[in-house]
Structures are given as structure tokens and as C-alpha cells.
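retry 2 of 3: previous attempt timed out while embedding S-adenosylmethionine. Reduced batch size to 1 and resubmitted. Inputs unchanged:
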Amino acid sequence: MVSLKRLSGVMEHPTAYRLWQSPFASAKFAPVLRHNDLSRVRRVLDVGCGPGTNAAFFANTDYVGLDINESYVRTARRRHGREFITADACTYEAPPDDRFDFILLNSLLHHIDTANVERILRQLHDQLTDDGHIHVLELVLPDKNGLPRLLAKSDRGDFPRALDQWRELFAAAFDELVFEPYTVGRLGIAFFEMVYFKGKARR
Ligand SMILES: C[S@@+](CC[C@H](N)C(=O)[O-])C[C@H]1O[C@@H](n2cnc3c(N)ncnc32)[C@H](O)[C@@H]1O
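retry 2 succeeded.
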């Protein structure tokens, strides 16, 4: 497990990360497409955007990606020519009145400790337009032993959480519209247990 975790440091390199993620990227994002009509989205904030994994879904939408990894951000800019900011989501101060109707966190929060998750979600709450939604895709730590639990425990992110812990964190900040657990796999093998949360701001 320790050596798997050490190996995951290689993923800091954008090409290594894209190669590892590419078989799973569509399946991870699938619940967002199932529950939303992206052609109606006006302005997207993609927090923890990586090397621009999800940017192509928003090709015709105003889009801002944010990530702490400068090398991911450089790759994302080169590939997509969109607005990408290098920043730490834990300390980032959003410009006043900067609002989005679609805020996406795809696999960010399992990298973040609980106090900072609470802080980030509070700030993003205030960045949603009145008709906007937050969309969170997260890695679940299953109870039962098996590949999804092993991969969650050996992930670069130190904070994969059980389903009920995710639900509690999301519900503390947003009104829940969707909370949908799902499995991401290949060739009939389950690799990751995930959850999709869609919420709206409490006003
Ligand atoms: C598992 S990757 C997901 C990347 C992308 N969202 C995707 O769907 O492929 C987690 C991302 O969160 C970023 N990240 C981790 N901690 C962060 C922080 N404190 N602030 C901003 N980004 C962070 C990492 O650099 C990485 O790109």
C-alpha cells in the first residue's frame, strides 16, 4: 500500500495523470451528463481542474479552471486555450461578485482535510448564482475489502471518505438535489466507488 501511494507521486506529472485517468474519465463524469443539460450552462468554475480533464465538456461555455499544480495548469492552457488559474483552493479568495451557475469539483475534496473542505464549500456556496448548482464527484472509501478500497486507500489524496461522511459534509453547506453512488470500472472490474452530489445554495 505504501509503495502504491509513493507511485501515485508520478501522477503529479500531467502526462502520467492523463494516461492513468483516460480509461475512467468519461465514466467518472457520466452522472453529470445524465442529470444535466450542459448546453444551458452559462459560466463554469472547475475547482481542482487537473490538466483540463473536464474542460472539453464546456467548449461553448464561459469556463474558468483552478488548480494548485502549476504544471497541470500549463498543460490545460496549452490544450484548451481557456482561462486556468494556479491557486490553492484552501486559501483562494474569490474576487467579490464573481458568480457561476455551474461549479464543478471532480475528485478534488479527497485531497483536502475536513476543516478546509468545510471552508471551500462555504466559499463556493457564496459564488453560486441564485439559479446555480454545485456538482461534486468524489472518491468513496468502501467498508468492504477489495480493489476499490485498496485504490482509495492508496490514492494521492489522503482523505477518501465513507458515503455517509460525504453526505454530511455536502448537506452542511447545500440543499441536496442528487446524491448518487456509482461504480467506475473496466472490463467488468470495479476500480473506484464514487458519489455524485448536486446541490443548490441555501438562500
Ligand atoms: C484527482 S485530481 C482530479 C483532477 C480533475 N478534476 C479530473 O477530473 O481529472 C485532483 C486535483 O486536485 C488538485 N488539487 C489538490 N489539492 C488542491 C488544492 N488545495 N487546491 C487546488 N487544487 C488542488 C490536484 O492538483 C489535482 O489536479
